[in-house]
Write a structure and sequence with these properties.
transferase, two-stranded antiparallel sheet, SAM-dependent_MTases_sf, Methyltransferase family protein, methyltransferase, 6 helices, methyltransferase activity
């Protein structure tokens, strides 16, 4: 009997019911356009790690592009994400008031439903064997069991407590963690801290503009290395790379940590 933590495969046949975060090619359908096109950056995004015969916990699979790429490389993937039954970590600006905050939460849940549909549409088309667990990043089920590799690709900036998120996932991780983030800040302070190798994180929400609502942090490589070293991943490599996006060129970095 299949472990009950895994979500039953969802059959989605109408692409109009889907939202795609990633641009990807779907068998027998063609290319769907998403917010991020990672097709030319898979090796950089995933740190050049070898996935053959590895069990992987992918945090925040979204449309599943990286999941399917890791499967192609020989991995057994467990995807962990939100469903419409959980709430995104929305910044609770006081100016919103409870009614506006709840309205935004409801809108996000409807969006997440379409994002999940996009994943299952692509999952079925790819004949993927990846398993899915839906839940809070702060309550990852131990029943998932041990994994060799865990990935956090552009996830930690969106969670209220990035250290707790890492702690929960890495307690299951036996070998390697991969963290990919965008360099969000161009401030002199950030650049000085980065060049000096000093840990730095900046709180992004602005109480005057009430933006951003769904992004909390600018995280330097040094603070993330300090986090994962605390959790037992003391050997690390960090690489910066530039990628083209719909917003122009973005500077990214990937940290690979080893237990």
């Amino acid at each position: 009997m299949q472990n009950q933590i895994y979500t039953q495969q969802r059959i989605v046949t109408n692409i109009d019911d889907c939202y795609f975060y990633h641009t990807m090619e779907i068998p027998e359908y063609g290319v769907v356009e998403g917010e991020w096109d990672l097709r030319s950056y898979v090796q950089q995004y995933l740190g050049g790690v070898e996935f053959k015969s590895k069990r992987v916990l992918e945090m925040g699979t979204a449309s599943g592009f990286l999941c399917f790429e890791m499967e192609k490389a020989g991995a057994e993937v467990v995807c962990y994400d939100l469903s419409e039954h959980q709430s995104w970590d929305i910044v609770p600006f006081a100016k919103f008031g409870e009614e506006k905050l709840q309205l935004h939460i409801a809108e996000r849940k409807a969006h997440i439903r379409k994002l999940n549909n996009g994943f299952w549409f692509a999952h079925n088309a790819h004949n993927s064997k990846a398993k899915v667990v839906y839940g809070s990043i702060y309550a990852i089920p131990r029943d998932i069991g041990n994994v060799d590799i865990t990935t956090f690709t552009s996830i930690l900036l969106h969670v209220r407590d990035p250290f707790l998120a890492l702690y929960n996932a890495l307690s299951l991780t036996q070998e390697t963690v991969i963290i990919t983030e965008v360099v969000r800040e161009k401030s002199l302070a950030f650049e000085i801290m980065r060049r000096l190798g000093l840990p730095y994180m900046s709180f992004l929400p602005n109480h005057q503009t009430c933006e951003p609502m769904e992004t909390w942090w600018s995280l330097s490589p040094d603070i993330l290395r300090k986090f994962i070293r605390t959790l037992g991943f003391e050997k690390t490599e960090t690489k910066f790379f530039s990628m083209r996006t719909q917003w122009g060129k973005r500077l990214m970095f990937t940290i690979v940590g080893h237990r």
